[in-house]
Design goal:
flat; Mannose-Binding Protein A, Chain A; transmembrane helix; eight-stranded mixed beta sheet; alpha+beta; Laminin; 41 strands
Length: 546
């Protein structure tokens, strides 16, 4: 990989800054640039436009800045906003800046240039404009006025000094802020391009240096007139449409191809790469040369981790390129990926907590996240007994967690009691009750299978005793009214055992009584039925015979 690639990522950002309305003129010196927009906007809309390009309304704190005004506004009639205003109160004639402040909220200035007629009006927000006609004297205006235009300033690190030129040459500059310039430019912001005429050699300003084209293909096609190829990644190269060839004086523009060009015989799908006296096919940026040496295939640009350097960005490969999108759980806001508040769409059954890139569901007391669907909550006790979850409008409508049974106590409160599933003999050998469930295990020399069966272990050296926690398959979730009994004054462990036994016993007795009654009833009714049947049959027979 080209070792300046990572630096170029910064350039992509710089070059991408231009956009929106374009300045009509610009000027740079040192690490600052200034622009003029002939666009009638009020003061706040003008400041917004400057800020949109990472600048602000121009401050005129020194005679040098004052001189820049005359460069920018030469031949431009009308009033232009500068970044000086009085947000509240009345002008103070005793103060150097008359109580006004620069847009970045300070009031430092080595220079003032107030218009001689003192305007003491303080009925509204006051802002300052300058005009060529008034020799750039500071004039107060109501800020909502749409004057002829406004002036912006921008500060840069790593600006380049203007490109040296030989006699007979001149340079055209294009800045990332959207204005063009010539020889009068003293410095250029990073990301500016320069074309040195008449050779048409091209340069880009990066890190105080002018780099000659073709540079990294990802930035403005490497500066190529037609297209840029970089599958020989350490040497990006420009190529031209069929029938044309790269101009060797600048390596970026296209000229008429010679008939004996060795590239003609290669039949390259995209481009022919020349290096000293050798020729080979090469591919557009984002493509890779196929095995046949002439076709091009899409290259996964995302293998380079540096492609999407912003925090929380993710790279998506596309045909011939890539896209930077936000990671899951983040959304685009301006040029940043910000955390999305998933809780706004209420994904959790109970409580939701937003986390960077995700969210977390929690459950109210007495519930736990459902292991099968973590956004939902299920009843949970974790003790031998817990108060039941009852409908506040209907205290007879109560619910207990899985593996618990409800019980109404004196005073009308309903409780959930753990069921000792071990009493049901679900396990083949050993059973251990847990709150809400049970665990089967096997004697030494046996292995647990299907969670409850024990089979003789093949390898007796193995402990053979394995356990697996198990939730009861027959889920005794009993809504109210459940089996209601009087609690006895015994320990909770014993109590549960007794309850389950009693429940069993009661059920058995009820069943027995019911069975006996049914039998008795059946016997009685079957006698009656038999009589009725024979009667009917008799009649039928009589009828049939008759
Ligand atoms: C300034 O202009 C913008 C758009 O032109 C408008 O939305 C805004 O309300 C104006 N502000 C003032 C203070 O007049
Ligand atoms: C360079 O600037 C000159 C005048 O400033 C202009 O005539 C010429 O067309 C420009 N050339 C390019 C390539 O922009
Ligand atoms: C054009 O590129 C070749 C190598 O590819 C180099 O030798 C030559 O100096 C370059 N020409 C210019 C004007 O930079």
């Amino acid at each position: 990989m080209n070792n300046v690639t990572v630096l170029f990522v910064v350039l992509i950002f710089l070059v991408g800054r231009a956009g929106g309305i374009k300045p009509n003129r610009g000027y740079c010196y040192g690490t600052q640039c200034f622009t003029v927009f002939r666009e009638p906007l009020n003061f706040s809309a003008a400041q917004k436009q400057c800020k949109g390009q990472h600048g602000q309304l121009m401050t005129v704190r020194s005679t040098v800045s004052h001189d820049v005004l005359s460069i920018l506004l030469e031949n431009f009639a009308g009033e232009f906003w500068i970044g000086l205003h009085l947000p509240t109160g009345c002008p103070d004639p005793a103060d150097k800046l008359r109580g006004f402040k620069w847009v970045n909220a300070d009031s430092e200035s080595d220079f003032t240039n107030w218009s001689p007629n003192f305007d003491s009006s303080c009925s509204s927000h006051r802002c300052v404009s300058v005009s060529q006609k008034d020799e750039y004297k500071w004039t107060q205006e109501p800020c909502e006025e749409r004057v002829s235009g406004f002036l912006c300033e921008y500060k840069f690190d790593d600006a380049c000094k203007s490109l040296p030129v030989a006699p007979g040459e001149f340079v055209n500059y294009t800045t990332p802020i959207g204005f063009f310039g010539g020889e009068d430019m003293l410095s250029l912001p990073p990301g500016s391009t320069a074309v040195r005429m008449p050779s048409e050699t091209k340069f880009i300003c990066f890190s105080e240096q002018w780099l000659q084209a073709p540079w990294d293909c990802a930035v403005n096609k490497g500066g190529c007139e037609y297209k840029c190829a970089d599958d020989y990644s350490d040497t990006p190269s420009c190529y031209c449409p069929p029938g044309q060839t790269i101009n060797p004086t600048n390596n970026v523009t296209c000229g008429v191809e010679a008939a004996d060009d060795p590239c003609l015989t290669l039949h390259c799908e995209h481009a022919c790469h020349r290096y000293k006296n050798s020729y080979a096919c090469t591919c557009d940026h984002g493509f890779q040369l196929a095995e046949d040496g002439r076709s091009c295939v899409d290259f996964n640009d995302c293998t380079d981790q540096r492609q999407c350097p912003g925090e929380n960005f993710r790279c998506v490969n596309t045909v011939g390129g890539f896209q930077c999108v936000c990671k899951d759980g983040y959304r685009m806001s301006g040029d940043l990926c910000v955390d999305e508040d998933e809780c706004e769409s209420a994904p959790c059954e109970h409580e939701c907590k937003n986390t960077p890139g995700s969210y977390q569901c929690t459950c109210y007391d007495g519930f736990k996240p459902d292991p099968e669907s973590p956004d939902r909550c299920i009843l949970y006790c974790g003790f031998e007994e817990c108060p039941a979850e009852c409908d506040p409008n209907n205290k007879f409508e109560c619910y207990c967690p899985k593996g618990y049974v409800s019980e109404e106590r004196d005073g009308g409160d309903t409780f959930c009691l753990d069921i000792d599933e071990c009493d049901f003999g679900y396990c083949e050998q050993t059973c251990r009750n847990t709150f809400g469930s049970y665990v089967c295990s096997c004697f030494p020399g046996f292995t647990l299978v299907s969670e409850y069966k024990c089979v003789k272990s093949e390898d007796t050296g193995d402990s053979g005793q394995s356990t697996t926690p198990k939730t009861p398959s027959a889920s005794p979730t009993v809504p109210h009214p459940g089996p209601t009994r009087q609690p006895s004054g015994v320990t909770t462990g014993g109590l549960v055992g007794i309850i389950v036994c009693t429940v069993f016993f009661v059920v058995l007795v009820v069943f027995l009584i019911h069975y006996l009654l049914l039998r008795k009833g059946k016997m009685e009714s079957s006698d009656a039925l038999k009589a009725a049947e024979s009667e009917a049959h008799g009649l039928q027979q009589v009828n049939g015979d008759g």
